[in-house]
């Protein structure tokens, strides 16, 4: 996989060539944390592996009943975290779908470089190969409740173990592709949690084109994560879940937030599948932006050449905008 092209070719192969469907350390944790919190017990999480040797990038793997295997997270700390004594805002940054995507995705995207010298903590958790940042309707392989893990367990664990602003103006959420969808979804469903939301090539409309994104969420999750189970239900969807998760149906939930959107406008020469991805992303983001405009909700959007990949210049620009929006360290 090229460093700046996290493609979905593996999903395409696994799902059987579906037509133009869219997918998508050092020492203790912190001096103010209680011993129980520092160990990771509580919030339904138990640390089973950890590495805090690097002064910035700390790694944890958890046992949790929410997920049928042990998901991991990277926590990227500011350069001065260990001696500043300051409290910091947090960006929860989500990876895309596919067998080449996990919690280290943004390490490969040089997130350490883009945040060097910047006063923000970046939390990068596992989200499954095709978890869609959701609690699925059905699973044949045990629990895969990613939404519960991220919102009810990981977020409070981070705030108990690191010096963060545990408030609306202290949190941002963003992501690429499936992760961009997850960011838009969480920002709306948990509107009091996040003051900034960013979707880099993330779909914003689940029902357009006869529900292409919803169908792809079901197909990709069935093939890669759920052993034939689905995120939204098949052959009939759980309509209430789709309504709750669909960004274009939650427009008022984005009021008073910073909203940042990126989509490509031209084919990606690497893969036809990436082109299909970005075509649907662009259409959905345009629909979303139009609704935001009509509601009088400000947003920043970028349509740029190319297909379905992370654009480093816009990721860097986004991080600066997130820091400007959130409470200052």
From TrEMBL:
Family annotation (Pfam families): Esterase
PROSITE patterns in UniProt: TAT (PS51318)
InterPro entries: AB_hydrolase_fold (IPR029058), Esterase-like (IPR000801), Mycobacterial_A85_antigen (IPR050583), TAT_signal (IPR006311)
UniProt keyword annotations, A-Z: Acyltransferase, Signal, Transferase
Coiled-coil zones: none
Signal peptide location: 1-32
EC main group: transferase
This enzyme's EC code(s): 2.3.1.122, 2.3.1.20
Catalysed reaction equations from the record: an acyl-CoA + a 1,2-diacyl-sn-glycerol = a triacyl-sn-glycerol + CoA; 2 alpha,alpha'-trehalose 6-mycolate = alpha,alpha'-trehalose 6,6'-bismycolate + alpha,alpha-trehalose
Family: Belongs to the mycobacterial A85 antigen family.
This protein's name: Acyl-CoA:diacylglycerol acyltransferase
Organism of provenance: Streptomyces nojiriensis
Classification of source organism: Bacteria, Bacillati, Actinomycetota, Actinomycetes, Kitasatosporales
């Amino acid at each position: 996989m090229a460093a700046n092209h996290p493609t979905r070719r593996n999903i395409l192969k696994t799902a059987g060539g579906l037509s133009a469907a869219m997918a998508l350390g050092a020492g203790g944790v912190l001096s103010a944390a209680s011993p129980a919190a520092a160990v990771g017990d509580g919030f339904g999480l138990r640390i089973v592996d950890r590495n805090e040797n690097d002064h910035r990038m700390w790694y944890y793997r958890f046992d949790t009943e929410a997920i049928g295997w042990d998901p991991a997270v990277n926590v990227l700390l500011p350069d001065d975290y260990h001696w500043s004594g300051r409290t910091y805002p947090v960006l929860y940054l989500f990876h895309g779908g596919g067998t080449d995507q996990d919690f280290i995705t943004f390490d490969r995207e040089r997130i350490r470089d883009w945040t060097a010298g910047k006063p923000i903590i970046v939390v990068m958790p596992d989200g499954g190969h095709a978890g869609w940042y959701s609690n699925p309707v059905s699973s044949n392989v045990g629990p895969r409740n990613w939404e519960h893990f991220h919102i009810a367990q990981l977020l409070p664990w981070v705030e108990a173990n690191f010096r963060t602003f545990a408030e609306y103006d202290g949190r941002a959420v963003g992501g690429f592709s499936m992760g961009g969808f997850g960011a838009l979804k969480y920002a709306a469903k948990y509107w009091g949690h996040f003051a900034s939301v960013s979707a880099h090539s993330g779909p914003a409309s689940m029902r357009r084109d006869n529900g292409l994104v919803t169908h792809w969420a079901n197909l990709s999750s069935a093939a890669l994560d759920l052993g034939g189970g689905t995120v939204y239900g098949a052959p009939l969807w759980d309509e209430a879940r789709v309504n709750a998760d669909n960004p274009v149906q939650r427009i008022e939930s984005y009021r008073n937030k910073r909203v940042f959107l990126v989509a490509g406008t031209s084919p990606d020469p690497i893969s036809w599948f990436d082109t299909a991805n970005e075509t649907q992303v662009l259409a959905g983001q345009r629909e979303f932006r139009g609704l935001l405009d009509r509601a009088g909700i400000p947003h920043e959007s970028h349509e740029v050449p190319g297909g379905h990949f992370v654009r480093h210049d816009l990721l860097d620009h986004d991080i600066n905008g997130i820091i400007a929006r959130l409470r200052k360290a």
